[in-house]
Please model this.
Amino acid sequence: MSSRMALRLLQRMAVTPLGFPGGVTTKGLREMSTLPRVYVTRQIPPEGLKILRESGQVQFDLWDSDDIPVPRKELLQKVKGVDGLLCVLTEKIDAELLDAAGPNLKVLSTMSVGYDHLSLEELKKRGIRVGYTPEVLTDAVAELTVALLLTTSRRLIEATHEAKTGGWGTWRTLWLCGYELANSTVGILGLGRIGVAIAERLAPFKVKNFIYTDVAPRPDLAKVINAEHVSMDELAKQSDFLLVCCALTPETKEICNKDLFNKMKSTSIFINTSRGGVVNQEDLYEALSTGQIAGAGLDVTVPEPLPTSHPLFTLKNCVILPHVASASYSTRNAMSALAANNLLLGLRGQPMIKELQL
Ligand SMILES: O=CC(=O)O
Model:
C-alpha cells in the first residue's frame, strides 16, 4: 500500500471512532491529537453519538456494543489518561477505575437518572464533575410503572398464559380476579418527579387518596397530587398499592424488608421501578409466597439480570421485567443526547444541563 493510500485509510478510520467531523486532513489529524480524549462505555443511542461526533470538541473511543457491557479489564485499560468518561449504569465507577483513569479525568457523564453505580465520595475527592439524566425519562418511567401496576394487580401475565395453554374453561365468577385502583389508597415511597408523574397518571383511575413517605415532607410536590405525608408504618398499613420511587442510597438499602411487608395488607400490591437494592428479596419472596401481600411487580432486581433459577420467578404473583422503565426510543435518545451535552459542557468548564452537586 502506498503511503498516500495508508494516510487516506488512516484518515477514514479516524472519522468514525474518534468523533472528528467531516473529512480529516493531515492538519486535522494533528489538531485532533490535542483534543480532549473521551471514552464512551457503550454504543449509546444515535442522538448522543451524533452530538459527540459533530462537536469537533473531543476525540472519542467507544465500546462498540449494546449487547454486552465493556469487560472491566478492557475498561480499566481504555480509561487511562482520558479527560472525560460517558458511562451507563452497568459500569461501577469506583476508586479503582478513577485511579486507572488518572488525573486528566475531569468530567463523568452517566446516561441514567440513578447514580448508585458511582462512588460520589471518590469523584468529589478528585474534583471530577458529574452529569446525569433526570427529567427526560420521567414520562417513560411513569408510563411503564402504570403498565406494570395494572399487569400485576389484574394478573395479566397469568391470564394470557391460561388463555394460551388451555386453562380457559368456562367463564368463572372469581377466576383470575385481582385488585382495582378505583377507591384505593396509593402509597409512594420517595416522592420526587417520578412519583408525582405516576400519581398524575393514576388519578383518573379514581384513586381515593395518595399518601407518601420521604425523609421530610415535600409540600410543593405533594400539593400537585394532593398527597398526604405519613410515616413509613402508616404507608405500609394503609397502601393498597405501594410504589417504590426512591433512590438507592445507604439509607434506603433494603428498606423494603419483612418489617414493611408484615405491616402491609394481604390484598396489597408492591411495585418497584427504582432500584433492586431497596428491597430485601428473600423477605419479598416470603411475603409473596405466604400470602402476606397479594402481588409484586418489579422492573429492577439484585442482581441484574436476575438468574432464571431465582425463586421469585417461580411465583405467579410476581411480575418481573428486565429493567426497561425508561426504554422508549424517544426517551433513550433524549438521555443519550443529554449525557453527551453534559459531557461537552463539563469539558468546556461550563455548567452542565443536569449536574449532580457533590
Ligand atoms: O434506571 C435507569 C436510570 O437510572 O436511568
Remarks:
- Confidence is low (pLDDT under 50) at residues 1-23.
- The pocket of glyoxylic acid is lined by residues 89, 112-114, 137, 326 (CB under 6 Å).
- The chain has two domains: 3-11+33-136+329-356, 156-166+176-316.
- The radius of gyration is 24 Å.
